[in-house]
Amino acid sequence: MQNQRTVADGLRLLTRAVVHVVLGGTALLAIATVVSVLGPTLALDLYTPPVAAWWTVFTAVAVQGVPFLLLGTVVSAAISAFVPERVFTRLLPRNQALAVPVAGAAGVVLPGCECASVPVADSLMRRGVAPAAALAFLLSAPAINPVVLVATSIAFPGQPKMVLARLLASLGTAVVMGWLWARFGRDDWLRPPRPAHGPRATGSPATGPRAFLTGLQHDFLHAGGFLVLGAAAAATFNIAVPRSVLDVFTGSAWTAVPLLALLAVVLCVCSEADAFVAASLSAFPATARLAFMVVGPMVDLKLIALQAGTFGRGFALRFSSATWLVALSSSVLVGWWLL
């Protein structure tokens, strides 16, 4: 009976996937047909040098970022669906001071996207992992995983120091924030755990192929939307903001670095693709673009909302503000040293 149920579930899952592919392909074909018919007319009406420049920047950022976004969401969904939480509890030392850097370094081998990092950290705390270590992993996993580092190396060709700077500044921020929480954090700043009633109330995420496909679909569509918005915002920023205004900020790191650190909070670009947005902001100094890539995966509007919903607004405001300051300082120090 159980085998029959498993086969039936598998067939339903396969049918749903086929339907999605067929519907998605039909929609793409319809869009391509409309664009091919109306595109030349619209291009003649709307084509101007600024529009052409905007479209060039937008497509460059979006097209370069999509493959890494897809790869990153595949890895993140696989980690969430197939890696049990006991892996973390067995690997982490009991001492918080030692557990924090280990959890931070685990982001290299157990990557995740920003959207998944908050529920994963919540689940780890419910499994007995120290909050300081769970929060260090929350910050490091989206920022220093292999997909992000490879994407950074492609976005900044011939600049290995930029990749190293991102790794060191991001890992340093995650570890420092973990240690700060271990020293100054209070349990009452975290929302009390929800009581468990039955097997589905334990806080453990769903696992298996169904959870993988669901997580992949959610993460890719969610993060893809922010990538498109980020690419459009970067293109608009490059084209619409006069050079005279940029010169006010780009001429000094004291203004350029905080500006891009704030821009990272607003744009909410996925970490697998933010390097391409940073590379497009070529008028800014290297340290400012480093700050954009370090702050973005750790503090942005969607992450603040996720943290507020999971751990409470008080925690989100304190933790996000402190993380922004530490990430900014880490970027400046590492950028001054390497870049």
Number of strands: 0
Q: Could you estimate the helical fraction of the residues in percent?
A: over 70%
What would you report as the Rg, rounded to the nearest angstrom?
21 Å
- How many helices? The count is 15
Subunit arrangement of the protein:
single chain
Give the H and E element order: HHHHHHHHHHHHHHH
Uncertain residue ranges? 193-203
Instruction: Report the sheet with the most strands, covering strand number, pairing sense and barrel closure.
Output: none
Determine the N-to-C terminus distance: 63 Å
What fraction strand? under 5%
| Classification by helices and strands | mainly alpha
Q: Give the overall average pLDDT.
A: 76
Shape: globular
Describe the structure.
There is one protein chain. The chain is mainly α and 339 residues long. The protein has 15 helices and no strands.
What would a concise description of this structure say?
With 339 residues, the chain is mostly helical. The chain is built from 15 helices and no strands.
Question: Keyphrases for this structure?
Answer:
339 residues; mainly alpha; 80% helix; 15 helices; single chain
Summarize the SSE layout with pairings.
Blueprint: H1 2-46, H2 49-82, H3 86-91, H4 96-109, H5 114-126, H6 131-144, H7 146-155, H8 160-184, H9 209-240, H10 243-250, H11 253-267, H12 274-280, H13 286-295, H14 301-311, H15 313-338
Helix pairs in contact: 2-7, 2-9, 2-12, 4-6, 4-8, 5-6, 5-14, 6-8, 7-8, 7-12, 8-13, 8-15, 9-12, 11-13, 12-13, 13-15, 14-15
